[in-house]
Amino acid sequence: MMEHDQQGDQHEDAAHEDAANEDTAPEDTGRAAQQAAERAERHRSGFVTFVGRPNAGKSTLMNALVGEKIAITSSKPQTTRHAIRGVVHRDDAQLVIVDTPGMHKPRTLLGQRLNSVVKTTLGDVDVICLCIPADEPIGPGDRYIDQQLEGFPRARKIAIVTKTDRASKKAVAAQLLAVSELREWDAIVPISSVKGSQLDVLVDQLVALLPVGPPLYEADTTTEESLSVRLAELIREAALEGVRDELPHSIMVTIDDIVPREGRDLTDVYANLWVERDSQKGIIIGKGGSRLRQVGADARAEIERTLGTQVHLDLRVKVAKEWQGDPKQLGRFGF
Ligand SMILES: Nc1nc2c(ncn2[C@@H]2O[C@H](COP(=O)(O)OP(=O)(O)OP(=O)(O)O)[C@@H](O)[C@H]2O)c(=O)[nH]1
């Protein structure tokens, strides 16, 4: 009701102004409406995804573009497990970003399932970006993924040379040349997510390749990923910190419950940290529980930032024997 009244007032005000400037006002109104219609006609929207070998900088780039920490980053390869969407909003465009796990030659059942997630995602998007680090030579892993792109002829393709802050200008130029020889790209863009350089150029290029269409999401959306998945990812990221061996592939986190305490600025989060073997349980827990305490403290700090309340984190370490090769266990973890 209130809103209607206010709108009514505004219309009246506008009518007054029209009367005062009889010659120009109707024309102005017409022009404004026409401009809005033209803007709507030019508005672009669509889906974009980043592929590349493990550690190529995909998650970091997506976070830099969306401006909120939603996909986990780590110095360990193959740590992105979910196709997380982030949305970049602009007046003239909306980019929906789908983050994919690193595409790689599958060795385990988990690897195969990840690849099938990647393939479903790629079949659906408007633009595929292949990320190749500036500071490492193009290798068989990059070529394998580049060849896979042949299977998705509908999508436009951009090559992104990542981590340019880690290479000299000359090395970046050489990498751009090497990348250009892989295939006919719609664009090739060198960027640094850490320095934030060339990200605007990349977004411009992406937008230019999207189809004309209305916004797909509300303006305040940055991610569709459910809260428990986001919190699970934060805990997994904390658990991966400082683990030097093969453990990253064996860690999985599930959330049982997220319960705000009534009348208090405090949320209880109940989570399980799954490993594959008893020996790994020992590594995670550490001497006298010291490592687990650290993981809990690190994860809690990140979760508090996400939830905006204090957090009590109940974190339990459990063993799911060889879950990466077990279809039942994989199903339980959502693969
Ligand atoms: N110096 C520098 N480091 C970067 C940049 N982008 C990413 N990194 C680092 O490279 C490592 C891997 O980055 P991620 O974003 O996790 O890579 P990813 O491709 O998502 O990796 P997976 O999840 O394994 O597929 C991390 O240690 C990042 O901090 C960059 O622009 N500059």
UniProtKB/TrEMBL annotation:
Keywords (A to Z) from UniProt: Cell membrane, Cytoplasm, GTP-binding, Membrane, Nucleotide-binding, Ribosome biogenesis, RNA-binding, rRNA-binding
Keyword set includes Cell membrane: yes
Biased composition (Basic and acidic residues): 1-19
Region (G5): 191-193
Main location class: cytoplasm
Record-annotated Era-type G domain positions: 44-212
Gene Ontology biological process terms, A to Z: ribosomal small subunit assembly
A Pfam short name: MMR_HSR1
Residues reported to bind GTP: 52-59, 99-103, 162-165
Region (G4): 162-165
GO molecular function, one term: small ribosomal subunit rRNA binding
Keyword Disulfide bond: no
Topology of the protein relative to the lipid bilayer: Peripheral membrane protein
Compartments where found: Cytoplasm; Cell membrane
Renumbered residue ranges of the record's region Disordered: 1-53
Recorded GO CC terms: cytosol; plasma membrane
Region of interest (G1), residue spans: 52-59
Renumbered residue ranges of the record's region G3: 99-102
Region feature G2, mapped onto this chain: 78-82
Domain KH type-2: 243-321
PANTHER family: GTPASE ERA, GTPASE ERA, MITOCHONDRIAL
Family: Belongs to the TRAFAC class TrmE-Era-EngA-EngB-Septin-like GTPase superfamily. Era GTPase family.
Protein role: An essential GTPase that binds both GDP and GTP, with rapid nucleotide exchange. Plays a role in 16S rRNA processing and 30S ribosomal subunit biogenesis and possibly also in cell cycle regulation and energy metabolism.
Subunit annotation: Monomer.
Protein name as catalogued: GTPase Era
Gene it is expressed from: era
